[in-house]
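Allow me, if you will, to draw on your knowledge of protein folds for a short while. I have a record of one protein: its chain in single-letter code and its fold written as discrete structure tokens. I should value your view on which stretches of the chain appear to form regular backbone elements. Thank you for your consideration; the sequence and its tokens are set out here:
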Amino acid sequence: MQVVRKASVLVALGLAFGSAMAGEISGSGVISTGAVNTSVGFLATARQNVGVAEQNGKISNTAVISNGAVNTSAGFLSTANQSIARATQNGQISQTAVISQGVNNTAAGFLSNANQEVGFAKGNGKVQGTFIGATGVSNVAGGFLASAHQQVGGAQGNGKLTNSTVLATAQVNSAGGFLSTADQSVGVAK
């Protein structure tokens, strides 16, 4: 009976420790060139993640480089989500370099939704001592009631952006269609 109790305690501690470490990228290099992700049809959803840490997510002492990544969703109620170096749920990005060049995210169709995040921390997010460079990134939604949301370099949900550099050049965010909405955030803390 004692052995079973001790084994149960060890398993519980192991699971607790394992979940505390969930969603962490540290001391690493994430390099992606020419990644293409596509979903087409009714209720189509395309999700593309490069260097993403979720659930108590932390990215530290890491380089995340993405060149020419393309994410596309087309069809009625389509959604395209593209995330490059994103940390969520108490997300933190620290001492990291995030470089994105020529990345494209597109959703086309009635009620389409395009979301693009580059170097962004969410849910009590913090970005500290980090360089975020985005050149020629585009986020486009087209269709009736389409929405396009682009966030480059920042933090959300009691967000803090400290000792960091956000360099965004020639980024495009657009929504086209009746009652469409486009919002773009660069170097923000919300």
Residues 24-189 form one domain. The longest strand covers residues 45-53. The mean pLDDT is 90. The two ends are 53 Å apart (CA to CA).
